Amino acid sequence: MNKFPCEQRLFQMIGFLRHQRLISDKRNIWTRSAVTTPVIATAVVAVLVVASVGAYVVFSSGRGGSASPTSSLSGTLNVAGSTLVFPLMNSWTFAYHQVYPGVTVNYNSIGSGGGIAQLTARTVDIGASDAPLSASQYASLPATVVTVPESISAVVPAYNLPGIKNGLNFTGDVLARIFLGNITNWDDPSLVALNPGVTLPNHAITVVHRSDGSGTMFAFTNYLSDSNAQWRTRVGYSITPNWPTGIGCKGNEGVAGCIENTQYSIGPLEIAYAIENPSLISYGAVRNAAGHFILANESNIAAAAAAGASAGLPSGDAPWTGVSIINNIYNDTSAPTAYPITTFTYLIAYEKQSSQTQGRLVVSFLWWVVNDGQQAGVSLGYVPLPSNVVALDDNTIKSITYNGVPICTQSLCPSS
Amino acid sequence: MKAFSKARLTKTEVRTWNASANADSLMKVLVAVAAFTVIAILTAIAFELYLNSLPSISKFGISFIWGTTWDVSTEMFGALPFIFGTFVTSLLALLIGLPISLGVAIFLSEKVKSRRMVTRSIGTLVELLAAVPSVIYGLWGLFFLSPLLRRYVETPLHDYLGFVPLFAGTPFGLDFFTAGVLLAIMIIPTVSAISRDVLNAVPNSQREAMYSLGATHWEVIWKAVLPYARSGIFGATILGLARAVGETMAVTMVIGNEPKITASLFSGGYTLAAVIANQFTEATGQLYISSLIEIGLVLFFMALAINTFARLLIWKMKRGMNIRV
Lengths: 416, 325
Hints:
CATH class of the largest domain in chain B: Mainly Alpha
Largest sheet of chain B: 2 strands, antiparallel
Number of domains of chain A: 2
Strand order of the largest sheet of chain B: 1-2
Helix content of chain B: over 70%
Shape of chain B: flat
Oligomer: heterodimer
Distance between the termini of chain A: 81 Å
Number of helices of chain A: 15
Radius of gyration of chain B: 25 Å
CATH topology of the largest domain in chain B: MetI-like fold
Number of strands of chain B: 2
């Protein structure tokens, strides 16, 4: 029984056409191969010889380097998680490998949630998360973990307004009302009042935000929740908030692209992406607790992190759920220069390591990242951790143990 | 040929004969395994999706399909805006893409068939269009197509026809309309290449019969060639539709990603595939993840339903028309 004769005919026809082509191709291959086979064979042999000699040279020189004390470390360290820190992590794994040539660090940027899930399943040694672990994430972990804040990230309100450059003033409340859809026009009285002397256009605001889950949005909505009661009850904060209004664009680069392409738009953007294209994207200053309008830069972001840490951070092995620089400095008038929308990203590892070899790699990498690695990040435009956070991290890393004995030794954790 | 005179075969020939008989049965087993692998994979996918979406299924039940809220912080999940978005963008893609694809196919197979240079170069270019990765389409859509459509299509349509609900709202460029146009461009290679092959396969006797009755070139195409090739073209359309429904990356980049159900084409939307691509990497919490997987299950069955519907339609059409193509 042929249920679909016409379709079969169709595929027969197409098949026939392909078949014809195939046969002629085949003929070509056969006629050509008589001449080219020896050439190809010679080439393959040559490549193999060169490759094996090369590999021998490379590996034997690697072994030769084992005279230096640091390269007593060897093995593979697996880290997975946040996409936000991927560029930084990428340069860290490379720089770390220069110092410890025997160690290979793999970073899988599969997203914070995925990273923690992998850590929970013990398939990776370290997880990277944009937000501190939630209560349910802690509940599903099989053992105590330590939280190591390892980089700082700041979110700016970026906009594309013809004729208006950096430095438009915002408050948390006004931003919340824009992103709630309550303020819909650029010449809204509350925006005009914040920006005397600036002629704001009579034009509708186009709201842009991330469409994918992101630590950037977690920080931004955290700030909006602190600033505005309606935002707090209606939206709250999350890495994937339920945005009341606006267009979602994928990734920081997607949000940057959407803002660039759309006049009169505004969207929260990681600062590194906001300063990339100053002719098309500008970003605003945000009022801090002391009442100053702060245009984010390296020093006021570092000041915010320092103030946030001195206001109190939990110890490394305590639960960090709900910890936020933004909350810590929201009412802190003692840091007049702090930029208010500043946040940590975190590395998470087990406090009691189950293998000495892997444990030594974990400790060595964490130590290097929060100390020497900070300088490696500066050339990429990242803000180094302030000294009080480094001190906290150092204590946390020293608390990591194998068989009840701290792993940190002078050679693994050299004091800088 | 030698099969006819087995008695006179030499020993070697008999061995070859037996070997080829063995090879035949071996081949039969191999292809059967291949065929059943497909079924097994399909079942495994459906089962795995179902298993992992159980928490969400037991929490929301069937109301997941028509729930309109997607809120991670309160863990309320409903798929209707995404189903709506997938449906609207795919439909739009077909509305725009099908006529163009048919035009390409008719041009290549009926109008310039004898000019090999033209058919070859256009045909190759159309096939090249299919080879462009979808993320490239997405980037192009975001940085080129979207501003262009906003400025020269959406804004005029909105200014003159804004009272029609379809064209109401604010033309932003990242919306159902742009996604539909981009998808149309993406399905053109599939639909036009297959339609061209189908049209080429229409026997010349059909055309000659029509010409002998005094028909013009267009009448021949319209009344003889196209009806004859109808179900083949329909099959091509369904393949295009399947691509549009499942397309992820390019759509995600231009649709605006707002879970909204609205009559306006100039409003941001969201599709089933896009929400998975956007949210799965950073999703935490069992209910959230299983809801995203249930979205995948819905998408899976939607694709299955489209294919089944298409087959039924072809079957019915053929019986109704009583033509054998």
